[in-house]
Amino acid sequence: MKAIVINEYGGKEQLTEEQIDRPEPENDEIVIEIYSTSVNPIDWKLREGYLKDMLPYDFPIILGWDAAGVVRETGDDVHRFKKGDRVFTRSANNNRGTYAEYVKTTENRTAFMSEDMSFDEAAAVPLAGQTAWQCLVEFAEMKAGDKVLIHGGGGGVGHFAVQIAKSFGAHVIATASAEKAETLKDLGVDEVIDYKTEDFEKIVTDADIVLDTIGGDVLEKSYSVLKKGGKLPSIAGQPDQEKADKYGVKAGSVWLEESGERLQKLADLYAQGKLKVLIDSTFPLSEEGVQEAHAASEKGRARGKIVIQVKS
């Protein structure tokens, strides 16, 4: 099968096309013919070698964790899915990712796509959508009426987070660039703060939850806008426990624990019209296409998700 791999860490030029053996399913595994996958910042961070200690994979490495496609083979212990099902998944943490024509994953990481969901849309959801859900619903225990501040509301995780929060009945504030303000309002955001010209510390008070997708100074400043007992999940840094104790808040770094059950809840939100998928741009599964997709992701200006189309 065709795959885009890296054989050493480095720049986007390390992404090259190779022929790799098609995966075979074990007992509880599913082989998916991939129609679309997507790019997440963790992809190029892994490519650069920033995560080699955390994720010590052997080369060659196929990057990517998101996949949407059609079930082609199942192991003997798979009972929920069958050949021909339209599914999406956040695949396992290993060196055989989703920048390829096929991927194998497990039944408990996989969900059925909503009937009217395109493969491009479905491929954008698994990692970013589940991360947003895990941060807000599981870590922060969000409830109706909560005041929720989401940093980077126009990004991959951010645009899912604002919609999940609205579906729970929260009052949602988002930081973003001015050009993304109208898009965020269309998604239901109650207040948009232009991070380039406005200081969220001077605008937001007594927030129940702050979701940090930026890290650095943004994370450091976020404690002060929370009410006592508030929650601060971060996907971009490690919160300072002493500072969290000082402000009387629960803060922590969230690393996604993938779940097919959680992914199915996101598919249900889509089916109910409560979750829209923003696709910033699409690229083909080729050396040049994936290199361009990584370059676009590294700029950090994507409106929603960047998708790689594997099969048209």
Automatic annotation (TrEMBL):
Q: Which PROSITE patterns match?
A: QOR_ZETA_CRYSTAL
Source organism per UniProt: Sinobaca qinghaiensis
Q: Is Methyltransferase tagged as a keyword? A: no
Its name, as the record gives it, is NADPH:quinone reductase-like Zn-dependent oxidoreductase
Entry annotated with the keyword Oxidoreductase? yes
Assigned keywords, A-Z = Oxidoreductase
* Record domain Enoyl reductase (ER): where: 10-308
Q: Name one GO molecular function term.
A: zinc ion binding
Q: Which CDD domains match?
A: MDR_like_2
